[in-house]
Design a protein that fits this description.
The chain has helices at residues 44-54, 65-75, 118-121, and strands spanning 16-20, 26-31, 35-40, 56-60, 83-85, 90-93, 96-99, 111-113. The relative contact order is 0.22. The protein has one domain (16-116): 3-Layer(aba) Sandwich (Rossmann fold). The protein has three helices and eight strands, in the order βββαβαββββα. The strands form three sheets. A four-stranded parallel sheet has the order 5-4-1-8, covered by helices on one side. It has a two-stranded antiparallel ribbon with strand order 2-3. Strand 6 (90-93) and strand 7 form a beta hairpin. It comes from Ascochyta lentis. Residues 10-124 form the FCP1 homology domain. InterPro entries: FCP1_dom, HAD-like_sf, HAD_sf. This is FCP1 homology domain-containing protein.
Amino acid sequence: MLPDKDKVPGGAPELTLVLLLEDLLLHLEWSTKHGYRLAKRLGLDYFLRYLSSQYKLVIFTLVKSIDADPIICKLNPFRLVMWPLFREATRFKNSKYIKVLKSIEGKDIPTKYTCCKAKLRKAF
């Protein structure tokens, strides 16, 4: 799914970290007064800068690319996250979208996943 990247000097492959857009990077809330509001997590800019020095960052979301791409562009103005993955990178089975992240980097490259929701953690 992702393009091949050169290995880190010394021969060790660079690690990939997959971050979930909803609930980890952004917080969505709804109220009768304001309707839907989307808020960036506190310290997110520092968090992304720090992690980008350690990992190749991938943002994953179950939202369609046409809706999520403008949000990710605003979160990521310095292109620290180079590979966003959208709903199009999933499979639809039994009326649910299923992440296909097991083979995101191939067999040789270690990949770590972060997830806030217990239901989604089981999918990894």
